[in-house]
Amino acid sequence: MNPLMRKTPFICDACGAEGDGARYVCCKCSIMIHKDCIFLPKFIKFKLHNHHILGHRYSFPQKVGEKWTCQFCFKKVEIEYGSYKCLHLDCNYVLHGSCVKKNDHLYIEVESENEESDEASSSSSCAVVLEDKIKHFSHKHALVLDNEEIITNGDKECCNGCAIPILTAAYSCPQPQCNFSLDKACAQIGKHKPHWAFRDPLEVRMVCHFSCEFCKYDCSGFCFDFYEGVHHSRREICLRCIEIPFITTHEAHAQHSLFCDRDHKGPCSGCGKEMGDYGGYRCTLAEEEENCKFFALDYRCLTRPLTAEHRFHHHPLKLTYEDPYKDDDGDPFQHTCEICEDRRDPKLWFDRCDECDFDAHPDCVLGEYPFIKRGSIYSYYSICYSHYRPLIYFQREKYPYPKCRECGHHCKDQLALKCPDSECNYALHFDEFPHRRP
What we know:
Helices cover about 5% and strands about 30% of the residues. It is mainly β.
């Protein structure tokens, strides 16, 4: 192929994307490609389809009425331009050449179409089994299996790994001062977790506080590290977000699957907020179905609990997607949150008890910091606040309420930190604390 310097726009025959600069041409084959597309591999293993080899081709035959859709961006594939297609005869998996080119961390080059795919290696557990106990990296004592529901101060015990109430058998520390429990799923988490968006598996850590880069919730418990940016800054992902695959489903849009579009910008269909830096999940048929064109969920709504409980109501509340009053022109207070008493947008999701006509904002039901376990240890302390010992999270302490050392108000309903020593009166609202990265 020969280089050609022109500023006129063209469409690359190798990847199907537009270009307007340096290019290579083959007069014999009548193809024109980007300068960097010269290096596109012929055969690849794609992370999202790693059981078959994909091969690059400049065109492939198409039957009458047959449509090809890229399985990464879910847009139409123009067969007259370059793309990657699965070499297995019974598989119609195809990708735009440009989608492969932009996501080089999702594939590895292979030498031939006959190279076998490696089986995904399973990550070893972080727990060491000791007869009827386990020794887990996240806690200094051995944990004992408890088949009965764990109740602490009248409330269901939460898992220290995911901060979600434990409903089944769990491993707990027998030491009364520890207040440490792991549900079975968290106890069996491997030391490394593969994720479709990253080339290498992510390492798990137990952290007393972090902010998830995907859903933006403040959390405690297990997190998974990745590094990005010019300064190679460490970022964390929570346990709920890392479990979401590239293609998933949600009962709010049960008729079609959803795929992750990391470049998508626009409002979330659940909460109405703009998508974050990592995009969101869109309908796989958004390009074909008019009703699905604008449906999108951010990570926070995608991981919302489908049922939740609140102390103001004695029944479980179900996440609801369509307003039951949309055909009713009656009481305007029907669109009011029963917890904060502010108006709610009838077009957005809300939590509801059908039996009692009790409606509330999902964030009001979950409360502030729903994924930080109360009673767990905050081990990063601040010299500037003259307290050098670890603190514990607490909320709704019994009277007399401790006073915040920063603002002077009582730590009553808000999440706060206090010293576990009964002789120490140190307490601080969590919002006032300098949240530090470990």
